[in-house]
Amino acid sequence: MTNQQFDFGMVGLGVMGRNLLLNVADHGFKAIGFDKDPGKTTDFEKSASPGTIVKGVNTLQEMVSQLSVPRRIMILVPAGKPVDDVIESLLPLVNEGDIIIDGGNTYYTDTLRRYQYLQPKGIHFIGVGVSGGEEGARFGPSMMPGGDLVAWEHLKPILESIAAKVNGEPCVDYMGKGAAGHFVKMVHNGIEYSIMQLICEVYDILHRGAGLTNEELHRLFTKWNEGDLKSYLIEITAEIFSQKDNKTDAFLVDMILDKAGSKGTGKWTSQIAMDMGVAIPSIDMAVTMRNISSLKTERETAAELHHPQQNQAFNTFFRDDSLVENCRKGLYTAIILSYVQGMAMLHTASKDLDMEIPLDNAVKVWRGGCIIRSTLLESFYNAYQKNPETPNLLLDSSISELVKNNIGSLRQIAAASALAGVPAGALMNALAYYDAYTTARLPLNLLQAQRDFFGAHTYERIDQEGKFHTQWGKA
């Protein structure tokens, strides 16, 4: 093979890198991948579809020397220092005008730093959020590129061809300036955390509370996935309930330890939202519940000490025939509110962090290929088509109707969970967010009085402009 004949290079042939590069090759582009592990490069070549042109190499120089100009090189290695190390290794090998792409789950300020570092060197750097897991990478992911417009234009034909398609539209588009691509992907993951936690809480109500078996839950979630809850996460949840354990006679879900792992993107979403002054309580609680789940030994000790009477309470509060329907409508509503919170965060980031995120593009690319794909996204897309500057989707009349028509069910299951001692924090926080956002006058006037009393922090009045301070407790 002669030099400079490959269209796209990949650094890192782990599952995601290999699958994404095979996807590139399947769409008629010549693909070359680097990995230090000869086994991975061999597996990559063996996995290629017949008739495609792929090559695996074990030195960066081999890969770079065989790429056409401008070179398009994607990095898919663990986030953090490994990405910086790869960039430093590439710099002596690339030229002005070449494009380096970070396709990992990178903290957005790292993306900004790398962009500012490489720009004076004439290297186009772009952060691309990739969602869909290993199957999505292989057969059509959702992708969120942001930053360098020149890089986007060069990458557009390749990324559009390999992306998932919905109604013929590729699930990839420009997400905005700077680190917008990785920021949008981070918020996507935060929404994902929230929806997964909401599903787990409804599962707890129905299974441990109401006594539905795994077989019944499989049938129920399969049915739900045929209606307005149709989404990837509901679909895979239905499948999970039918999976038998190959080591015992039990269902596999019952044999899995209740300690949840995470890679940090949900935590980032919560931390940054706090810094930005944006309320995303459903996402915050989803992160918190994963943290509490890790305290398995402490939880078992606490259960022995406190003797929660959950089973007895379940019989009282969860025997209503309307429970299943309330769970469906309540889950639907809480999921909408998860998206609402995430999109409000993107709206604020677009302005405050100067990212200029086209919100319609974000929900458009999430409609297929990604973990949070859902039929709901079509409604959100239509809302942003009507008003691209909507600061919160609850201000859109059509989305408001969806929530108002179902909020009573969320109220029912949140209340029943509280009375029965079921830990349903994400459901409760979704409801609290809705109630707070739609309340014209909150009791925070008292809080402002307290702050002024002990700290002279001042307050505003409802009848006059300006800031005021009172010597409290004195005539």
Keywords:
Rossmann fold; 475 residues; 9 strands; seven-stranded mixed sheet; 2 domains; N-(1-d-carboxylethyl)-l-norvaline Dehydrogenase, domain 2
3D structure, described in words:
The chain is an alpha/beta fold. The protein folds into two domains: 8-174, NAD(P)-binding Rossmann-like Domain (Rossmann fold), CATH 3.40.50.720; 185-437, N-(1-d-carboxylethyl)-l-norvaline Dehydrogenase, domain 2 (Orthogonal Bundle). Helices cover 55% and strands 8% of the residues. The strands form two sheets. A seven-stranded mixed sheet has the order 3-2-1-4-5-6-7, with helices on both faces. It has a two-stranded antiparallel ribbon with strand order 8-9. Helix 1 packs parallel to helix 6. It is globular, with a radius of gyration of 25 Å.
Secondary-structure class: alpha/beta
> How many strands, what sense, and barrel or not for the largest sheet?
7 strands, mixed
Q: How large is the radius of gyration?
A: 25 Å
In the CATH scheme, what's the topology name of the largest domain?
N-(1-d-carboxylethyl)-l-norvaline Dehydrogenase, domain 2
Net shape? globular
Number of helices: 21
